[in-house]
Amino acid sequence: MSDWHACAALVERGDSARFRAAMAAPAKARAALFPIYAMALEVSRAPWVTQEPMIAEMRLQWWRDALEEIKEGREVRSHEVTVPLAQVLTGAGAAALDDLIVARRWDIYKDAFEDAAHFTDYLEKTSGNMLFAACDALGRSDKAVCRDAGYALGLARFFQAVPELEAQRRVPLLDGRPEAIAELARGGLARLRAARAARGKVHAAVMISCWEAERLLSLAAKKPGLVARGALQISRMHSAARLTYVAVTGRW
Predict the structure, then answer these.
(1) Contacts of 90 (CB under 8 A, 6+ apart)
(2) CA dist 42 to 80, 144, 165, 167, Å?
């Protein structure tokens, strides 16, 4: 199995939604998408595989060191993700992913977000920076558009993770009241609209990842109680139809 396909297998097992989005992209784009998605997945897992913060910090540092090797053009450490990642990642993309890793340090600890700005920064850097790195690898990227789209996508997925985060004794939301959740969702929809207005500045193959964001955020805005109940979901039929539409038209 090639490294490219090893990355695809990792994403398929660990993030079915992003796997479906990548498979809906043109075949020639997948060699860039899957290594970046796999790296983001592995980093997201690092804080959760141990109860020891120091070990989690070391795992994240390992990925930061690998990105430093890529940025400096040195031979990258041997790993099923790092080798293909080094083949597709730009210097700007590597820097964006490094910031993603730093943002993921929040996942290690059980502290709440410091304020709304901290929460926004977390979503922009974890989700938005991944979109930027992938767009940059494919040759058409814009940081502001990726930041807006990434915030919307990250917020939708974060809403879905709220019950599990609370079960892990985390404090995911600064304000968990229904009206506060609805307001956050409306803000995410506004940023998604802003990103769409400039969709020509980014690579459409990457933005397929956003295919469920509008529907999820719209549901959260109308029925915020779904977030706490872990019921913020889209029917398989609607999801499949929407994915097909976005893949064919490029209108995410």
Answers:
(1) 133, 136, 137
(2) 11, 25, 18, 22
Both structure tokens of 64: 């930061």
| Amino acid at residue number 247 | A
**pTM attached to this predicted model:** 0.96
Query: How many whole angstroms from its chain centre is CA 54?
Result: 24
Q: 112 burial class (0-12, 13-18, 19+ CB within 10 angstroms)?
A: middle
The answer to whether the CB of 165 falls within 8 A of the CB of 172 is yes
Nearest to 20 by CA among 251, 248, 239: 239
DSSP class of 124: I
The pLDDT tens digits of the residues spanning 174-232 come to 999 999 999 999 999 999 999 999 999 999 999 999 999 999 999 999 999 999 999 99
CA–CA dist 151, 122 (Å, integer):
9
Q: What is the Cα 68 distance to its own chain's centre?
A: 21
